Queue: 4 jobs
Job 1
Amino acid sequence: MASFKLGRMVMRSLFKKPATLMYPVIQREWQERTRGHIENEIDECIFCGICQKKCPANALTVDKISKSWTIARMQCIQCSCCIEVCPKKCLKNMNIYTSPSTEKVVDRYVGSPQESKPVPKAAPEEENEAVGEKVL
Amino acid sequence: MGKRTIIPFGPQHPVLPEPVHLDLVIEDEKVIEAIPSIGFIHRGLEKLVEKKEYTELVYVIERICGICSFGHGWGYCHAVESLMNIEIPERANYLRTIWHELSRMHSHMLWLGLLADGFGFESLFMHCWRLREKVLDLFEKTTGGRVIFSVCKVGGVRKDIDKADLKEIVNVTRGMEKEFRELADTFMKDYSVKNRLAGIGVLSKEDALELCTVGPMARASGVYLDMRLTGHGVYDKLGFEPCIETAGDCYARCIVRIREIYQSIDLISKAAEMIPDGEIAVPVKGNLPKGEFIARLEQPRGECFYYAKGADSKFLERFRVRTPTNINLPALVKILQGCDLADVPMLILTIDPCISCTER
């Protein structure tokens, strides 16, 4: 039996740097594999909807007609299931978390109209500008 | 004979990380009887088998609990693989064992911290959790998640650990061993800590067997019981032997968990040495889960039981988890009888309650 068994460790830690980081002044180093959030390279997406079907949290909505891919950030559980099933491999796992928010963030990605398809009327220029944009 | 009073303990209480409620019938500071009630965080996860395909269900099952998430994923995958007669590659089995043992380390360190916090040793609690952080960093590096890993899948594992990372895991855990020895010495030899733990909440071997206790709780009472002996993973190749103590009190339960951390470090080193090269997963195509299977796994808290029933479709008919905390609750009620009111938090903590698992 002894007392102050932890004394040495406590004394040592007095002269060490803190074990915690002064966030947000000092940012954390993310690992390569960290599952932070999902991004979509929308121009490569074919809007097949497999990711929507397979998503365990029902966080994805894919609309083939309006060429939009929507992710409910707060619903996504970062399991990377969609990345695995994506046939075009256009979904990417980014190793940084999305910034904290008090509202339910929904990110919408809109794809460009396919060039090979004959378009009955020339698409208005405004729509072309919105290509690949991220609407919050 | 003094006056009998009923003290409600929980569901919100400083020592309880999760909600469980106990009605303590006390008489002159002595607990006569304890009546537990659970059901505060039931989420109905088992019901989701009807809505999620068996390949996606693993993500749901992993989220039953934050601390034993890897074990739940493994148990589910093992059950479904057995239903489908899938033989997983040897390397996947080794990787699962390594991750599972790392989970055990972080679970036991978390528990030691909570115990230290429970008896009011704040700096010991902080140092336990500081060390645990290194294991979480290893998880983040190898799987991408700190708490929920999502690496287990039906047919194997999703991610491989390369040689450099395996070496780092061994180096980090070996480095932790030195520091952990100081912490363990505090738990095992410090006068004030021992006073709070030794001789408190004794559960005899007979009672442990009669009340069907599992995990460190049973092993601390001298019961030779560990699901790792049944041959899941590669434990038989690693020469695994369970840690047994005979005293059956809070101190013995603490010692069992401390010894298991050392044992996990050894098992990880051995597994990292012996791991063969090769595939990490086999493709799952063709047949669908059919029939019934019961998988048993040694979670950090004890034996966990997974029942899966396939319906020859993409959706399982039934999936059920029986968790160690559920089984240890009768033993908790038993050891609470006759204890001091001040020891109640200690006793609740030493069964390592995980209420999220229990209620799912």
Job 2
Amino acid sequence: MSRFSRSHLRWLLLGLAVVVVAAGGVVWLNSGDEPPEVRTREQTLAGAADDITLDSTLYLPEQTPAPAIIVAHGFGGSKDSVDGEARELAQRGFVVLAYSARGFGVSSGEISLNAPDAEVADARELVSWLAEQPEVVTDAEGDPRVGVTGGSYGGALSLMLAGTDDRVDALAPTITYNDLSQALLPNSATTGDVPDTPAANAFADNGVFKQSWAGIFFAAGVGGAGLANPSVDAVEPGNEDDDPDAPANPGGAPAPEEAPAEGGAPPGGGAPPGGLDTGDPCGKFRQDICAAYAEVATTGRASQQTVDLLRSVSPMAVTDRITQPTLLVQGEQDTLFGLDQADANARQISAAGGEVKVVWYTGGHDGGAPGPQLRGEIADWFDFHLRGRGEDPGTGFEYAVQGALRVQGAPSVRTVSTDAYPGLDGGQVAQRQRVRLYGPQQTIINPPGGNPASVSSMPGLGAVIGSSSRLAGRVAFDMPGQAARFASRPLDNQLLIAGSSTVRLLVSTLPGAPAQDGAVLFAKLYDVGSDGARVLPGSAVSPLRIPSLPADGTPVEVTVTLPGIVRPIETDRRVELVVTTTDQAYATPPEPAAFRVSLVEDGALEAPVVPGTRSDTGLPTGPLVGIGIVLGLVVLAAVWGAFRRRRAVDHDAALDDVPLVIDNLSKSYAGGVKAVDDLSFRVERGQVVGLLGPNGAGKTTSLRMLMGLISPSGGSIRVFGHKVYSGAPVLSRIGSFVEGAGFLPHLSGKANLELYWAATGRPADKAHFDEALEIAGLGDAVHRRVKTYSQGMRQRLAIAQAMLGLPDLLVLDEPTNGLDPPQIHQMREVLRRYAAAGRTVLVSSHLLAEVEQTCDHVVVMHHGKLVATGPVEAIVGGAGEATFRVDRPIDAADVLRDSDGVHDVVVEGPLVHANLNGLARAEALATLVRAGVAVEQAGPRRRLEDAFLQLVGEESRK
Amino acid sequence: MTPVEDHSVDHDVHTDPAALEQLTDAAAQERVEVAPDGSVVGYKARRTLRLRVELARQLRRRRVQLVLGFLVLLPWILWAAFEFGTEATGQRSGGFVDLATSSAPNFVVFVLFAVSSFLLPMIVALFFGDTIASEASWSSLKYLLATPVPRHRLMRQKAITSGLLSLLAITLLPAMSLLVGLIFYGAGEAVSPTGDAIPFDESMLALLFTVIYLAIHVLWVAGLALFLTVSTDAPLGAVGGAVLVAILSQILDQITALEGLRNYLPTHYAFAWSDLISRDIDWSNMAAGAFSAVAYAAFFGLLAARRFRTKDITS
């Protein structure tokens, strides 16, 4: 047993070592993950005008000088709201400047919506300031190595700054706009052409006022609850589920604009106490902007002056001058600045010769801020373009696809990438797939006051519902009578819409009911399941205004650009185009009106598809090489093993005819226990040899060594001259039955023998199944499953198995155990006859009588040692030796000693042993009787029994 | 010596004296021819325990039959569950059920998703962990080795047989699922959870690769179970041990705080095959998973071979 505990101990130690190493590894790795330290320095900087002070924080990485990045905050935020991103970038090794823009935080000044002479000029001052900082790498005197990034309002600033200041070296604006007038007053219908990019919008004049978002924006500007910017991270590839309960704020610091929105209260309504200290309804807005907002908000229409104002503060004013590498990140869940805005930016920058990469991610103003992966990608962008580190991120296009169907625990977002944004200068135009729509001409009405209105989205509630695409797409609701529907047939294949679909519609007034102001309509595209469940992807809607409709009811044909979305429409689902007259998020005309809407002939949806480029990375070579190495090692190990098995033929030809020679055989176990100790004996052909010894004498161990199951610690076993080892070919000449039968319990006795023989691989005709089975004598029971057998039946079957193939040497361990007396008798007969036929039998037993009656030779073992060996008669009968049981042993001994030739007289209790040396036992008996000794018993001296009893006696005394 | 209750059974158990004559005659007449290596002519080490024989030994086991039968039944059970489950709830948009029942390949993918974390490793652990330990527990191992089947050959043949059975299981389940899927859900596109759709014919190729990947991925269980099966005489211990390690690895894989360390867990890449349901197949996870599995399998396999080579067979 100590052998087991020793090996267990070894395993335990090994296990402990592994655990310790693993724990150490965890500690080491975690300590390695400790983010680099970031120092911060707060300062108030001067803006572009004398009275402008900008509250700023400079984040310094561990190593300076380093390139700088300006991080601009979103509308309603301050430098604190970008603290997390700034810190992350500083940890990546950049000097980061975060500041509160004019009118926000504790910076002074009025909000001018990124006016070139205000906020943008401020930012230029900051660039100059950075150039003076010793921690910042400079390209030239007064020209720092600097990038600029920011979300939404900050993103627009990034573009405007890059367009007006050549010193900016790279930029990464996120979820921002191209044209504020189109963002707030979109019009997605045109009678002209639409650009070839996937998310291009008609961007027609005279748009419909996006009142709810504009309100939120305005409220943020006057210090109201800031719902303008997403406060949670968007779901990313590899995220296992989008869990709206677990918002992860970048950097961990809660952004100040993150205000809990309660219930469905209209956003932007609640100002924090003390938020308005001036009583000025314009808050911190510049007067002209405030006035423009007031105009639009009250009339729902924008004057040309207002449009011009909005355009002057929009990136579109400068995009033709941006030549720096630009990473445009836009959200797919964004009803404020949709994909069309980034599309326009990309088109304009590219047309001006700029280098643009476009990324659409799952978030947006309704969905969430860029997650850690995307923020990493932005940092990579700057790493490459400001420092030349890392791989070239290229000028491609990638978009995230959120699966419509989800399996628990499975990542539901993947990224599709191509090497170019379709439709840009010199590139291929966006592919469009036609999806035929069906539906008759329908009449829809605009109710007086535009109320009740259809619902498509809940602007500003992004943090609440927008982050869950499951909820967001299902809020949509169309008022009956106000909606015209055109549906496709169920799709035969999946359609992955990536961008803005277009459709051509015919719109007319009802004859006699002219619409004074033209038509205001809303187009949206639903994903409809076979059970009728509808999802409005991106919660997005395209407003359109057709300025004038002929009063006679002649239809006007317009191309409508639907909202930019990324949506896989699965097989068997349909797309449904819905045109409504109202939408809660927009200002709709209060006058009642009715319109006829129909598709053009063979009307179809032109859905943009952007197939991903198959990544040319091919098979990853690292792991494959690893597999090759591992397989190589295995082959080497196998070769080495085969080499070790090739042993020199150990054959003693002189012993060719000797079935078994055991020479100084020992087996000792760990702990010094010797199961077999220096055992030597020899078995000749034709013998039935008994291996006799009490239980634990080492008989079975010896037999196991003979079969190659246990390797000896010393000495050797030769069978017909060949040394025995595990798997030695000579073992095929041995038939064995050692320590119990071994059968497959689920098979019949016959099947067991047949399969056993089949496993030997020897020819079936050499097996002698019939003879062996008859020896077993199981009758019909051979067809029963072995598990139903009695101990005796198994025993007989096992002996039959040992006899299969008529082995030269039959080794049986306690063969008569479990047999009843007639069967034992038969078994003896079998063994004797078998040996008589020229074969050899080795039987082990702990019963003397057994050996005496079965064997002609005997080997006696005890404690692993050889005690006696020889012919049974010689050992049992003791030639000429006799034993007398007498009343007076001393006298009897004297008498015997006096007899002629008698010697070796020994007294042992009441027994007297003597070698009679030819004297007949009867005569000796008579001599004793004559001498007056009472003889109780006289017989041959049973040395074997003496020895054996003594051994067994010792055993029982223990 | 014979137990009393066995008397009735043993009643007709006896050796006919004539049989003894036959045996003696046979023994007397048959000359034993011996090859130079000492073996009986007719014995060749490379012919011992051929795969056909070992397969017959294993396939006739009730346990193996039950497992294979279960795998045939499982897709039908799942189909029935979907049938009755959806009627009850009615809410089936964009969910679990929708994905699984949208097409035949998706049904297969769903079934594989369901089984590849636990059932598949368990079946492989059963085939490999049981193979030698059960012979030891039946005491038949010693007779095989004394035949003699050389030890390395015994282990190899046993491992190959278990491998074939495992492969059969891994193939049978998707094949059956595909059949069930084709009958009830039709030959549509395969849609991944991330919304990627691939046509039916391509999905068949993806499923083929999936089966290949799964077969490679479970090699680590095979190696471990093989090591355990040569280390113990208790088949349950070997199977249970391997399953336990698989579960432990999965639990550790849930602990995101372990971060990069999780890549070293053998079960970490259990679902890497789902990358195949994609237009643009990313092989990196599968390659890493295959490497991980092969490395673990090689390590435990060599350990098993080393242990079995010198082990004293005492069962």
Job 3
Amino acid sequence: MWQFLKTWYHRLASPKWFYHTSGRWLPYLAAVTILLLVSGAIWGLGFAPEDARQGNSYRIIYIHVPVSVLALVGYYLMAVAGAIALIWKIKLADMVMVSAAPLGAVLTFLALLTGSIWGKPTWGTYWEWDARITSMLVLLFLYLGVLALSRAFTSRDTAYKACAILSLVGTVNIPIIYKSVDWWYTLHQPATIKLTGGSTIHPAMFKPLLVMIIGFYCFYALVLILNTRAEILRREQRSAWVRELI
Amino acid sequence: MKKARKQRLLLVIFIVVVASLGVGLVLYALRDNINLFYSPLQVQSGEAPFDTRIRVGGEVVTGSFSRASDSLIATFAVTDGAAQVPVQYQGILPDLFAEGEDAVAVGRWSREGVFEAEEVMAKHDEEYTPPEVAEAREQAEKVKAGADQSKRPDN
Amino acid sequence: MSDLVFQFPNVNAFLAMNGHGVYVWSAYGISALVLLSVALAPVRRRRKLLAAMASRLKHETGNGTP
């Protein structure tokens, strides 16, 4: 058993193994992602019933909620990769961390943007400095900070340490974002999908949301793998196995 | 686990714990400033300052909304269940503004006891329901309320 | 699945979304563009890298053989 885990550990940590295996799975993952996102979007836009209070503007939820979820989950993934890189000095973990930063930044940006667009017809304002929106903006800056740090050093050895430490410090922000609507008075409403207890969304509206959330998880995995593969190629271009690829 | 690895693991835990403690303390110290708005109770009990730009939020009291016949001035009251704050506002209200729903007003709390709003935002809840379902639920509630009322004289 | 019905009487109503069309469609449109570009960026980056490596390899072997 231990031996089995050990070989897996070494395999997983090998950029070459990761590059080849992920390459085999990518087409399927891409197909599933496109299928889920396109069908989920059509379902949410045209087939889900409108909301009794908000009318059709609530349809933005089908983008806003999944990108927000992945922005938060992706941050933990980046921080865990950073911790693994720090503790075990695994190169691949460093590459995953660096690949997660731009993706997370884009998802956070989209969460803020779609939320802002949604805010206008419902709240009556695009932006308000409430705890939820402000802490989400801090998340964007954390992602951008990790991205900037990863490029600020010429030495890879310094860069990954700086990135990992900032990622780890920033994890504090995630529960704050999540609980901000319960801890303080905010303009943003509390969570609809609760980790414990029932959700306050009608099943006819929840089903397409679930499709979109799963679709965005696939999208996240897909782009993270693509980013990591590009990063592997860039860093390992001198190695023999990469030369064989050409 | 090797000794060096163990040390680095401890370092990682240390970073997360220290950062959490630090940020937690800062948030605790700033806890009142993080709230976007004052509750009506806070305003009425004198916690909110007079004549500075503040926000007050709460449920729009049912039956409190009225619009002047000759101008765009609207008046309504917001409540948190414990206290009410009368609000005066001139302008366009957001679509989702309604009695019985939450709203946030930006403006000044005057010494006359009226909140002079320059901007009003609507809060919406976390519930999403199709119109027919909402209607059916409302009907059911009405029937239930009617049944309760018809029962009351007997008791 | 059989109870799935298209919620709008025609295409114009679908686009207008009862006055919320601008918000909904701009949110979906911008998101689609951004997501597509973020997915294609590493594909392009990888292609460029491979091309650069191929040309360098050619250059090196070209120099190596007299």
Job 4
Amino acid sequence: MSLSLILSYFEMINWHTIAFYIISIFLISSAVYVVLTGNIVRSVIALIFTFLMTAGIYFLLQAEFIAVVQMLIYAGAISVLIVFSVMLITDRDKNINETSPFSHNLFFGSIASGLFYLAVSITVHNTSWNVTLKNKEFTDISLIARGFLTENVIAFELAAVLLLVALAAAIFIIKEVKDDN
Amino acid sequence: MITNSIGLSQYLLLSSLIFSIGIFGVLTKKHIISVLFSIELMLNAVNINLVAFNKFLPDVFVAGQIFALFIIVVAAAEIAIGLAISIVIFRGKGTLVLEDFNLLKH
Amino acid sequence: MGDLFWLYPLPLLAALIIIFIFGDQLQEKSGLIGAVGSGLVFILSITLAPAVFSGDKLVYSFQWFPGVNLGFRIDGLSWIMLIVVTFLVSLILLYSYSYMEHEKGLRRFFSFMVLFGFSMVQLIVADNLLQLFIAWEIMGLCSYSLIGFYFEKSSAASAGKKAFLTTKVGDVFMLLGILVLYAATGSFNYDEIFSAASSGLISLSEIALATLFIFGGVVGKSAQFPLHIWLPDAMEGPTPVSALIHAAAMVKAGMYLMIRLYPLYEVSEFTLKIIMIVGTITVLFAALMAIFADDFKQVLAFSTISQLGYMTVALGCLGAFPALLHVINHAFFKALLFLGAGSVIHSVGTGDIRKMGGVFKYQKITGSAMLLGTLSIAGIPGFSGFVSKDEILLQVYEHGSLFSYYILLLTGMLTAFYMFRLYFMVFTREKRSDYHGHESPVSMLIPLVLLGIAAVFSGRLKNPLMGLLNITETAHHNNIVVYSSVAAALIGIVGALLIYYLKIIDIKNYDSVISGPKKFFQNRYYFDYFVEEIICKYFVKISGMITMAIERWIFDGIVIFAAKSIKIISNYTKVADQYIVDGFVNKTAAITKTFSGISNFIDIYIFDGAVRFIEIVTVRKGEIMLYWNNGKIQTYLLWTVVGIILIVSLIGGVF
């Protein structure tokens, strides 16, 4: 088999499809691991991996900016936050690793989520999507910026306020309450 | 030989699968923190949805991506508050097992 | 200047925001801020006088969402209400500055007080029913919170609940009425509704239905029979709250709404008849209760219900103008009476009039102001109450039924009697308990003095008001009516004088005669008992029976069926287990072992769960209901997900 033949095979392969399936498999399996494992620390690691794989999906969808934000905020900031609080709580909570990680709802919960997936996938299948592929190599970030500062400017400001409020509220909630008595 | 390309439906199916896994977690996990993780999974699934719509549907410009960013903001706020609340609950009750809370009954 | 009239309530809103943010630092000074805010609105409203008196109608509206405008409107009616309400609100807030001095939770108190005033102002300047309804509901919320201000006391908390729920019953009717009007005209706007009504776009039956429903809301808010039960209990709140509810806001909102929609009521004779009947019942009903009440504020509460009944009767016989006049006059003298009551209770330390007596010696200013208010409500010529009561009586005599007229006359006598009974018992004669009376601080006296002046002179507003509202004729003057009403009032006063001041008639001698009706009236005709013990209880019982029936026949049936079928299936599986699986399992033990991890997992979590479920189903089928109502969030979320699945399936065409 000549090298050129192999190369032509390679050209025929749709790398996008392969990448999608590989990333999807990783994504789904890590997500499944997040909910199935009884060990919270492992669950966190799997969750971070899930975030990273989601970022991969965004790359495939040519939404590079979202992918980067996903990696920075989710895989970076939020993960650190989660790890910290897990460390704060878990080593003192004896109830976590001893028993089943699932509540009494396991049976119905699995049925309900399975049915949900069934319903949604049939819906996706039944709907005729009016698809037009945009032939762009990557998204123009300035478009996003313009969107934020023109049409969605109020929502943008509100998001800022929301973050501020969440920050203040988190501090306020956690603050030890001094008992007057 | 893999030739058929991936369309909108595949992304939607992927995101709905992740979403269902999230629902499964929310409904069945015992620990509040695990439930929070599952909610994060659901939010991520929604984001995949939005970004996919942004790419495949006409007339949306970058609205899908903008919404995805908003959801990331909300998710950040949500996880911060959620963790803060769990810590306070833990401080008060000494446990974070959801089954031990049946306040809705009273 | 005049174009921006719709922004005039803003100072009140600014006060609200300031109090909400800095309330904890300001403490009772929030009252001053609120008073200033309300006073600014008052002054700004006064500047509109030239425009309003020239007959202009100031309207400003913009689109809220397609089809519905957000609008503000000031005409003669809303202008005068605005003036009265802002004036009273600022005085009441000034009064609360000292009255509430040593209380806790002042931020909550003043925020809600100012919000109460602000929503009343919004209700007045709204130019459509939807906006009015929003303000109306905000007032309901404020009343709930303020009546239940001392929520540590269970009676106060339940009084707040009672007020909220009772008025809510009326509000549902009112919303129905508004929606009937909207369905008929496609608009919430007053003018559009009126023009549709006058052009015959709405049929008479629709108008009757809508007005009747809206009157239902008024019955709730303005405490008419049979939804009056919340008002006497509302006394649990601090006194300024009572003054606000009785004089400026809340109960007056209902009357304002009726007067505002009067072009609709005028057309519908049927509704007017109902209104008159309800009003007549309320007038006498409340006055009789007031005679035997022993709590200072409760007497005043019953008198409010009774006076509101007067207005309702007037509205029931085409007398929108006398009703408005009485709304305004009553606002002044009732605010005066309540603030006076607060001043007395503040110094004596109890609200029980049997323990007072001789207060005038300590509180001369309060006592004199109270005397003015009492004379006014009794309907003595020269005071404001006389003017509007007289108008109402004339109106009823001319347009209403004679029966209502006699009832009103009788009630006039009773009013004079119980008000002077109250006055004599509190302010005159000797002390009946050990208390240290003292005059109230200046900031409580200023409102009293101002309101005392208003209670004397607000009757003079009659002619300017007629000019303002373009009313050319009122009911014909009739000497018989005037003299008989004055005579009735004088009989009442003399009766009270004889019994409670001069003590010529000793009521103890008549105990055997009085004690029966006394008990009856003091228990409020057992009406509250009737509502709480019989209607509520049986309602709960009947709904419980229905649920039980559903549970027994439908849910239990399903459970029994499921249990039976599971039993049958399990019998079959048992057979299969013994003969087929057992043999198979032995040979494939090695393979099974490798998968034991997985099967163990499945076994424990899924099969065991299933088995546990079957156990619950078969062994204790009664607990199945408990299982779904276990108060755990995830169980409830499960049902949410089931609902979402159904919705998605319906939309996506799964079925």
